[in-house]
Amino acid sequence: MASLLYRIGRSAYLHKWRFIAVWLLLILGVGGAAAAFYKQPADTFTIPGIESVETQDKIKEKFPNQSANQADSPSGKLVLRAPDGKKLTDPDVDAQVKALVGKLRDLSYLKEKDSIAPPPMAAEGLKQKLAPIKQAQGIPEQQIKADLAALSPLSQDQTTGTVQVTFDAPSNTQISDADRNDFSSVVEQNKGDLQVAWSGPAFQSTQPPNGSSELIGIAVAAIVLIITFGSFVAAGLPLLTAVVGVGIGIAGVFAATSLSDAIGSMTPTLASMIGLAVGIDYALFILSRFRSELIAHVGGEDLTPKELAPKLKAIPLRERAHLAGLAVGKAGSAVVFAGTTVLIALAALSIVNIPFLTAMALAAAATVFIAVLVAITLLPAIVGLIGTKVFTGRAPVVKAPDPENETPTMGLKWVRLVRKHPRKFVIATVLLMGLLAIPAASLRLAMPNDGSKEKGTPNRTAYEMVDESFGPGRNAPMVALVEYDDLGQDQRAQAVQAAVQTLQGVDGVQNAQVTATNGDQTKPGDVGTAAQILVTPKYGATDEKASETLQSLRDKSADFHNRTGASYAITGVSPTYEDISDRLSGVLLPYIGIVIVLAFLLLMLVFRSIWVPLLAALGFALSVAATFGVTVALWQQGFAGIISDPQPIISFLPIMLIGLVFGLAMDYQVFLVTRMREGWAHGKPAGNAVANGFKHGARVVTAAALIMISVFAAFMLNGEQFIMVMGFALATAVFFDAFIIRMTFIPAVMFLLGERAWKIPGWLNKILPTVDVEGESLQHKQADGSESAEPTGGPKHAL
């Protein structure tokens, strides 16, 4: 691999315009495809094979005139609340409501105008329509009142009401932003003294990333890079190449929206977050190695930047290309391997068979793949274009000594301290990670809904108003599909009533009533072959008791079937989200197992050791456990009031986090330990090899970790709950893994192991293929690409 990458890096430096031209064409092509094929992402979180989704499909079959997927509906509700101390039925308030409703009826992009009515009027019309029907069915008067209250658009205290609105569009994703914006403007201009808000599928507007989080991350990364290189030009190169890679990746995601409905609004943001972080880091690793190769080539270890500049300028083109090839061959090998681990970890998420999760994972994986290609091809081409001025534009004050030659570095001082007390550091890190992981035992997963939106948004406000005035169950309705194809006509009606009684009798159910049958409406008593029963729970969608209620409803289905011969199944947006959470919880531990085993096998292949992969996997597990613990404590439990709006963790965050942290953890493991093994393979004692390798890798890994932390942390300003928590969790995971695990725990244990750290059974060593990640095959390369008898160039490795 190293030899191939050497040729790529050398060729890119020499034939810079060819490589740059290819990337420019790719940018134009992907950008054009994005502009031509982009469509609004659809946040439809569904999983094939779960009960709620299968039941929705049956509803579509049994009730073809109804939407099978409520989350796709172009409808929503406007929530109105009277001023303090007043009711919607008060004459002056009622006049304002009617004026607002009149304006809404005039909007051309709204259909089903009959449903747009003042809540008091709509509530009265509902009562006049349904009460006689229910009375004729022999339903007790008390139950009729409860049924009407569960459906009424007017709260019992008459202070709050809802107005159903439906946009003239096939689905919510095809509603134009112009229509949504105009709707909000009309409401705001005509609301009078009313408090108003809106929610529902029609108002799940999604916008492409605005780039503010990325810009903040880039700004912090720029500071770290300037300190690392001491050069404005060199600091700008990783930023430039990372932006190119992310731009291509995001454009590709936008273009792919026309091919898949599984791509949600969070997909491009996640891809941007991951692509930007790894893109900067991968370019940093290669550029840092290139600087080391240049300095070593001219013997400039002890020279000042001013003294070094003319020597670098005097290096012939062929020799500079050779050094660029060495940098790509050595650091690039680690970059390719590290990027491959991220790709595998993300692509493996597709095994859980969750379309929207697979789309997010594959989009992030594709962006990482592009970041690797950019680092090993476009970066050396741009360096070739700049030539000898790549490390010019010196930043004032910043010294940025070369970690390959500075003695002793801060990293060397730290690792020497660890070497003196390895047992203490091992015990301390394990205890710290274990204590931080404790809150993870209380992890509660839930899917995003209007209640998880940012406080103050119309969706969140509407959700809270409905919760307060109508009860939390109004925001989390369920639908039971009752099927009785094989029963006689008399038995069918009895089965429907028995289903209502069964569902109503479940603890946690506020109300259950029939809302539709597929029988002939012109024939009294004809209930067809299926009925829908609306189930209103007592609890909100994210309440743990809501999931218990759902399970109780399903547990009763077997007994109901035995008694009546009919069957029922539960669906709805909330049950679908609960089923998704259960599926994700169920695959979490197996996925962790797969990732840890994968980490072990890959690292055993690279380092030809048993202990190094075991330590890497153990360190990864400690990092993830501690990250979960801190995330749960702050974002779910609201520890110390740091997070003002604690909520359950979004269901697909843990499995995404595991995949990403695995890849990033292996990045740091590879970049640090390859230098350790390189020293050991060249005859250094195990302890010295660990210390020397740590010295060479610590500074650049520290810079890379700080860049990743800043990029991820910047996304906490996004406003989207999932992205905010994901940004925090990834930043925390990188901090734990880079500074506590890779820079403390790993070297401490390796000092304890000594020579045993690099041992591997002979039979296993024979069957494992050779992977040259350290670039040992490049030791004999000459400037013209030929082989020499003696090693040439390269940084010094002595302590």
UniProtKB/TrEMBL annotation:
SUPFAM superfamilies, per the entry: Multidrug efflux transporter AcrB transmembrane domain (SSF82866)
Transmembrane segments: 215-234, 239-257, 269-287, 334-356, 362-386, 425-447, 588-607, 614-636, 648-668, 700-717, 723-753
Record-annotated SSD domain positions: 235-385
Top-rank taxon: Bacteria
Membrane topology: Multi-pass membrane protein
Gene3D superfamilies: Multidrug efflux transporter AcrB transmembrane domain
Location(s), subcellular: Cell membrane
Region feature (Disordered): 779-799
One cellular component term from this protein's GO annotations in UniProt: plasma membrane
Main location: membrane
Keywords: Cell membrane, Membrane, Transmembrane, Transmembrane helix
Similarity section: Belongs to the resistance-nodulation-cell division (RND) (TC 2.A.6) family. MmpL subfamily.
Protein name: MMPL family transporter
Organism: Corynebacterium heidelbergense
